[in-house]
Amino acid sequence: MTKTDDGSREYRIRSRDGLSLRVLEWGPPEAAPVVMLHGIRGYALTFAPLAQALAPRHRTIAWDQRGRGASDWDPACNYYNDSYVRDIEDVVDHLGLGRFDLLGHSMGGIAAYVYAATHADRIRRLVIEDAGPGASQDSAGSVRIRQELLSAPRSFESWDAAVEFMRKLRPSVTDAARLDRLRNMLKQHPDGTWGWQYDHDGIAKARLDPDPSRTVDLWPHVEALRAPTLVLRGGRSDYFKRETAQAVAARNKLVRWEEVADAGHYIHDDQPDAVRRLVQEFLAGSDDA
Hints:
Helices cover 39% and strands 21% of the residues.
């Protein structure tokens, strides 16, 4: 285990199918654990500001999901929800976690719904960030993500070219957030160009031409949740519809939802203070509330 510049602890855990996953932790090892799952082109460090705010009451655990960041790319391109759920099982079992809080954004939110529903004895409280039934199939945001996967260049001639690309892609995100994303999403090649630090082709294939047998209907999992659940929706989100958030809460009395004003799909980037406050208040609740 090593210490990183942001104060987190870094180590690696091997999944059951042999992939090495880079894991980061913040907060005291003896504190209440909360696991955080990033989205389709995300990375563990996206949660650093929130994790630092939750310390010292919480031990936050996040990892670069398979095919992203410093974790191994999957040669079999198993970039599907069932694989992400198995990775959750492998990490939390390796760490010997009992009951813990779970937060997932977008793709990570889909895995969080399924894990929480199928491992009800392990989840104390659940937070879902801009994800819900149907969002990855029939929303304007899902169309946007597919178009971005299709149109994103494989590499950039310069860092400035990458910055300009990200500015056009995420115009509503702050400059600091865009630069943070680029620092964690890109790596420099020996010839001076910059390329993605994730398995673009493998992830794009699974997203654009998915195996229909591995898609997931989230509604049964929503209904099966047994832990208090907070669902956050960005007020400007094109991915997670307001009507869906309302329906999720109507289907399960343990779910409440909040809309974060002036936030898009990347809520914790757009409104970090609002997300921090909502998550802190929610996780401070009792186990059986």
